[in-house]
């Protein structure tokens, strides 16, 4: 006879406590650890807590530099084009560079050309030869998106916007230089726990390819884009989180600026990150500082009185011409100057006797 499957056919697992603490199990308490389940901490200790943190197992840096000329850039908002690289958008145009004395850059996104590549040039990650713990990263045709801030000679912001340019392009692309911006670069990274993957085609292809997570400054997009021209719309995925696998951070700087061209230096920090649990000794909870209103420059007589000394009888016997502490004057009378009488304001008074 076959056994009937029901909800009671469940094998229950339980974990032991990390230890019986002094609070819920003092020395005179004879209860067993099984009776203290959900009373003592299941993991950790009172002074040693368990924390899962992203740990960097390997890290390397790389510098690239390419020249960008204004005539190579296209203003996306002013044309019906589907270009995804060497473009200006988000309100930035070529004319804004004429009044700029300095250019400040922030790397907000990098497309490493792993997912949905166009053409035969694409980046890839493969195991190193004869060493499965090493991953060989080869980068080609990466698209770097900058947040651009143009500043004039008076340190005032002239304009702000976005710019996307290509690094590590082919020999026929703009900005190619065999020394500072070659057609591709390769490096080895120590990846003992593996790498991260992403769908090759975001529209639904059933294939995962190795990828690199860029730690940038793009948050989640809410809602659906209502752009009229979808060709000029580029969707940027959220990248402001730390993920396992190979990650990259980037910094950029304009190292040379002429009339119509400027050189952008790009620093890439490659990191191999895995989430690992550690025990750490803590010194209590942190208390953030409380914001307080800025003290106003104007005098507050009521607040000064409440925070000041108590009133008391101030005139002693045989003291002639002494003002009582209970005597008050109009502030305008004090500002008119000294009238050399006992009731006048004592602030700023210098009577000639």
Automatic annotation (TrEMBL):
It comes from the Bacteria. This is Uncharacterized protein. It comes from Sporanaerobium hydrogeniformans.
